[in-house]
Amino acid sequence: MIVITGQTATGKTNLALKYAQKYNGELINFDSRQVYKHLDIITGKDISSKNQYQLLKKINNFDIGYYQIEINQNQSQTFSIKIWLYDIVKPNQYFSSYEYIKLAQYIIKDIEKRKKTPIFVGGTYFYLKHLLYGFDYKTPPDFKLREKLNKKSVDELQKILLNLNKDVALQMNQSDWQNPRRLIRKIEIFSLKNSSLKSKKEKINIKPKIFIGLKFKNREEAYQKIKQRVEKRINQGAINEAKKLLEMGYKKTDPGLQTIGYKQIIEYLEGKISKEKAIENWITAEIQYTKRQYTFMKKDKNIKWENV
């Protein structure tokens, strides 16, 4: 198995595609923003209208499928590569690293059956950490409960949590208190009555042969690259994409729309800030995100870092 990770906007997917050609591989996305359907331009999915999505099967109401990416090797030859785990859930659905791992394990087996190389590419280290090293959870996911809670507003979730455990609810910071994903997880934990289900540990033993991390040389390099990318996505129709999602009935409080880029553009669409300020805030948020990414990832001594 090959893993290519690192900071946002460092060219991870392009490098992964090169490895896919070299090692007869298929890509598996582990970007928590790209797992959502309809979130294409702002999240930077490497797909176009030419790429048709092939649904393989559903697991726990999550879609498992792939896009076929065509790479031009030369003027007369193209190389076709599958990329998995885009478009798993709707923007208003809850999705955790636990659920991601279950889907990823299924795809690894499928790829290996066909004698190909799984190549993981993305920047959500939380997913990667749990995939490679396992994870502890005191309360297992309750998918039926989550399905019900996903239909409720933030206000309704807050009231449910207050009734379950007022002390914990009042101790939550403002960001978590407004985050439906965090609220649902808290409700899930305090709704569990069967204590025998607690203190379960899952061990996963996956060791990549190649484990590369891409990072910027300095802050200025990161700023310039991210600025260019944000401007490119604005030109590609990022604002219209956010507007369309709201017209489809999705709310700014939905898990998918809590994503960097959408939050800032929605503020502009609501008339709270100017377009220029929304773009500036988007760039700043991306820069802050790259810092957090490297802070988490540099603790993993197995990653071989390369500057871009």
Largest sheet: 8 strands, mixed
Averaged pLDDT, please? 89
Low-confidence stretches: 194-203
Major sheet: arrangement of strands: 3-4-5-2-6-1-9-10
CATH topology of the largest domain: Rossmann fold
Radius of gyration: 20 Å
Q: What fraction of residues sit in β-strands? A: 15-25%
CATH-scheme architecture of the largest domain: 3-Layer(aba) Sandwich
Could you say which overall geometry the principal axes of the C-alpha atoms support? globular
CA(first)-CA(last) distance = 23 Å
Q: Would you identify the CATH H-level superfamily of the largest domain?
A: P-loop containing nucleotide triphosphate hydrolases
Summarize the structure.
This protein is α/β, with parallel strands linked by helices.
Please supply descriptive tags for the structure shown above.
globular, eight-stranded mixed sheet, alpha/beta
Characterize the structure shown:
The protein has about 300 residues and is an alpha/beta fold. The protein has 2 domains: about 1-135 and about 200-305, 3-Layer(aba) Sandwich (Rossmann fold); about 140-200. The protein is about 45% helix and about 20% strand. It contains 12 helices and 10 strands. The protein has helices at about 10-25, 95-115, 125-135, 145-150, 155-165, 165-170, 175, 180-190, 220-235, 240-245, 260-270, 275-295, and strands spanning about 1-5, 25-30, 55-60, 60-70, 80-85, 115-120, 135, 200, 210-215, 305. The strands form 2 sheets. It has an 8-stranded mixed β-sheet, with helices on both faces. It has a two-stranded antiparallel sheet with strand order 7-8.
